Structure formats: C-alpha cells, structure tokens
Amino acid sequence: MVRMRVLVAPDKFAGTLTAVEAAAAIAEGWARRAPGDELDLAPMSDGGPGFVDVLHAALGGELLAVTVEGPFGTPTPATVLVADGTAYIETAQACGIQLTKGEGAELATTIGVGELLIAALDTGAHTVVVGLGGSGTNDGGAGLLEALGATADVELGCGPMNLDGIRSVDLAPARARVGDVVLVAATDVDTTLTGLFGATKTFGPQKGLAEDMMLLVDGCLEQLAVATDRRTSLEKGAGAAGGLGFALMLLGATRAPGIELVADAVDLAARAGKADLVVTGEGAFDFSSRSGKVPYGVATIAQDALRPCVALAGQVLVGSREMRALGVESAYSLVDLVGEERAFADPAGSLAALAERTARTWSR
User: Cα separation of 62 and 249, whole Å?
Assistant: First the structure.
C-alpha cells in the first residue's frame, strides 16, 4: 500500500550534480527512510545546463551529436535534441562557464552557439528552442550572429572587447539563414543587455570580469546595441546568457520562461496534482530563486495544485519569511547537515542523506 506520493522535481546542483542525478539521489535517500512512498521523478531545468538532458528524458526524440567551436576556439562536443518537429539546444554546451572556468569573458565568443543553432536548423525542424543560462561569455551574441552570416565593420566573433568602435551590422544574411523557422529563447532571467541591471553588471563578476573591465565590456555592448536595435537591447531577457537573448531577439525569437517550457513538457502540473508532497532543489537557494529559477517555478505549480513544497539545497540563504514568499514550506541545507567539505566531496551521497532526514519530517 502506498503511504504517500512524492513528486521529486529538482534543478541541477551547479558544479556537482545534474538534475537527473539530483533527482535520483533524493529518491535514494527518501526511499531509505520511507520505502512505502511512491516517488515520481521529474528532473527540471530553467534553460541552463541540463536543459537538453531533462527534455530528452521527458520527450524522448533523437539526440544528434555535433562538434562546435568553444568560447576560446577549442572544438567542443554538443548535442541537438529533435522531438516532434522541434529542435532543442543548450547554449551552455557551447559557451558555458564550465568551459571558461569563470575567466576571460572579455575575449570569449559565442560562435559555437551559432554553429549549434545551424545544426538545429539543418534538421528541418519547424521550431528551434534555445535554452539560455550558465554561460561564461558576454559578447551580446555577436559570435552567434557572425556564425549565421551577419557582417559588421569589426569582427563579431572575437569577444566583446573587439566590438569597440562598431558602427554598422548587416543582419540580413543571419535572418535569411533562420528563414521561417520559429525561434524561442528559453531563459531564466529578466536582465536587459546593458546598464546597471544588464548582463555585464549582473553576471560579469562570476565570469571573471573585474570592475574596470566590466565598464569597458558594457560600453562595447552598448555600441553593439546602437549599431543594431537599441530598443531590443532593453527588452527583458535580452541580457540572458551574456546577451545571447539579445542576438536571438534580433533574429526574431520570442522569449519564454525556461522553467515554464520544461514544466509543460514534463506535464508537471498534472503530476503535482497527483502528489501529496512536492520536493524541489538547487545548489544555492536564495531570493534570486524568484527570478525564473526552478524552485520558485516548481513551488508555484505546487501551490496551484494545493500541495506543500519543500526544497533541498547545497546552501539555504533565505529565512523562513522569504522562503514562504517563494512558496516553499521548508528548505534544508546540505552544508548544514554534512559540512561544506563532504557536500562537495560526495554530493550525491550527501543529498541522499539530506533527503532521508527530510523524509523523517514529511513522510506520513
């Protein structure tokens, strides 16, 4: 007899566990404490790393292996998922921070993302969904535009600093390459391209940009915006993935919250309605989780289904009031349970242990 139905819907734990691995670890630990519970695993993504894997697990389809140019020119493996006439790609595979190691964003390019997009277009799909997030680049998508055929009075594929002095850009070849294909930019942030709350100022430090360098890079992206379409640069999501959102919007892409797209693909609302409890998680649970991140999206769906939601995280950086504002009843920290050293040394085992302890409180 099933004691309790638990929907397990975590994001990746950045740098340690994929969403699929995190869901499996939570299920393992929960089952140790409550073997009679029925566990429904729904790994999630907001468009960043793991986007393609999560959708492949949910939708099936065909995975196509390609090799593209990495952020510093190194050949880099990537995949295109094709399912029911739609191709899905993940920009982090071609320009992710795991490839730059958080350094050199002033010189890093998104040419490889453009090559990945071309591979998706070549499948003949009527729609291409581009997962944005986890990038180590900050070139406003200039490299992507060059890969698709755009030209300018400077080289577009040499990183943001090379955009200094740009005055004109011909986007017609890139737009022709996309043709009538529907482009969708799946993003987890509302950031604009430039300015105080733009891509550089918000995410530049984690990509290795010093304060003085951020001013220079932001100025170069401002020049790119003026040379193309400054109004588009002010759209929400234009600053996603170091400005890849902007480049895609220039090519006619519409924007969709990544978490909502994945939630629809895995039928999360219906699955939450059948559960007694929803468990989500991510590496760091803080108030920024409200900006399109997986825990907030999952918690919102749980609320709509009138189901409680709890979160497991590497670190919990919000208090109970903020937690409830995010729709989460309780949040539990790996670091608090096992310490930082063990949490990083054995992330799956530590997460399983945390899930086991959480089940003591929440399983009937």
Answer: 27
Same domain flag for 164 and 313: no
Closest CA to 66 of 82, 51, 50: 82
This prediction has a pTM of 0.91
Does one domain contain both 80 and 205?
Answer: yes
Sign of CA dihedral 215, 216, 220, 226: positive
What is the chain's pLDDT, residue by residue, as a tens digit (364 residues)?
Answer: 568 999 999 999 988 999 999 999 999 999 999 999 999 999 999 999 999 999 998 999 999 999 999 999 999 999 999 999 999 999 999 999 999 999 999 999 999 999 999 999 999 999 999 999 999 999 999 999 999 999 999 999 999 999 999 999 999 999 999 999 999 999 978 899 999 999 999 999 999 999 889 999 999 999 999 999 999 999 999 999 999 999 999 999 999 999 999 999 999 999 999 999 999 999 988 766 566 689 999 999 999 999 999 999 999 888 888 888 888 999 999 999 989 889 889 999 999 999 999 999 999 8
Domain boundary among 228, 259, 290: 259
Domain residues for 62? 51-259
Same-domain pairing of 31 and 138 = no
- Are 215 and 230 contained in the same domain? yes
**Counted domains in the chain:** 2
Which residue, among 227, 251, 186, has the nearest Cα to 49 in the 3D structure? 186
From 235, 259, 283, the end of a domain falls on 259
Check whether residue 24 and residue 148 sit in a common domain: no
On whether both 75 and 203 belong to a single domain, the answer is: yes
Q: Which amino acid is at 148?
A: L
How many CA within 13 A on the CB side of residue 364? 10
Residues 89 and 227 in one domain: yes
Of 69, 181, 90, the C-alpha closest to 132 is: 90
